[in-house]
Amino acid sequence: MPRRWVEPPEYPVIYEFPKVSAVVSNFSFRDMMHILTYTSASVPFGYLAGASARVKGPAMVVAALTGLQAGYMVAYIYSKGRLMGIFPNDDEVARLGMSTMSIS
């Protein structure tokens, strides 16, 4: 059983222990933009890291995949935090028709 948070959540809890499928299906447009931004911002670093013309292409691919993974992790953290009531979750609460009263 996962450990509980030390402090109670500030916002309404939708899922106390959300599964991966619930977290990924809760990705918002902003979360998708995190993934896109991290991926596209990492490509120039891969180009600059490539020492020769022969290495620049593979270095850009590796950097893009690294950025994709970083963006996915950031989006996952925000999505899971909204479901657990750690981050503001007004959209999720409204979509599910829950009360917007914060937990005391």
Automatic annotation (TrEMBL):
One GO cellular component term: respiratory chain complex I
Superkingdom of origin: Eukaryota
Residues of the NADH-ubiquinone oxidoreductase 21kDa subunit N-terminal domain: 9-87
Signal peptide from the UniProt entry: none
Keyword tags: Membrane, Transmembrane, Transmembrane helix
Coiled-coil regions listed in the entry: none
InterPro entries named in the record: NADH-Q_oxidrdct_subunit, NADH-UbQ_OxRdtase_su21_N
UniProt xrefs under Pfam families: NADH-u_ox-rdase (PF10785)
Transmembrane segments: 59-78
Protein name: NADH-ubiquinone oxidoreductase 21kDa subunit N-terminal domain-containing protein
Organism: Selaginella moellendorffii (Spikemoss)
